[in-house]
Design a protein that fits this description.
Shape: elongated
Distance between the termini: 72 Å
Order of helices and strands: HHHEEEH
Radius of gyration: 24 Å
Amino acid sequence: MFQSFEKFALYESYSFLDNYQRITKRLLQNLLIKVRDMHFKQVAYETGLGHSTVIRLFDQHYSYTNQSLPTILAIDEFKGTTERGKYQCVVGDPSRQKVYDIIENRTLSKLREYENLMDFLY
């Protein structure tokens, strides 16, 4: 009399949602953009996600390596032609003959700002 049916679920496909995902592509993109400028907890609060979810999504979509500073780090100034100052500073490794960065001017505030960034990155 009654036919038996197999239990199965029907899922609609959405262009803005990947398979087996509960977070939209748009929210993920927004999250990954905000992570560039904010702390994980701030992004979690603004997006309504958990702190650990934000970190997990960041780790899934960004690859990064922890680098160590070289044994010898050289900072030298040179005369340049920019609107931000007459003199710039070059940061590099003299033993490997590698330039890491050029700082826009040689003022103490810029050098301290750069030092704080280096402490954060390395």
